[in-house]
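Quick one, tokens below:
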């Protein structure tokens, strides 16, 4: 039986605890359930989910607005 994605994410998070940057990338095909798995793990751990792409885009838009004035 294949290991659940959530279990693989939790194991990777545990391994990342000893690393300096503690970065874990979740990669997969579109529609493969990455976001759902991350939300499930975050819910179990009481952690927030941050869409880095969305947050970074917002910061870049703010920067562009500041420079255009």
């Amino acid at each position: 039986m294949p290991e659940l994605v959530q279990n693989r994410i939790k194991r990777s998070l545990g391994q990342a605890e000893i690393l300096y940057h503690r970065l874990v990338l979740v990669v997969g095909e579109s529609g493969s359930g990455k976001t759902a798995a991350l939300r499930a793990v975050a819910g179990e751990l009481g952690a927030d989910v941050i869409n880095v792409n969305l947050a970074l885009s917002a910061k870049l838009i703010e920067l562009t607005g500041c420079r255009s004035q």
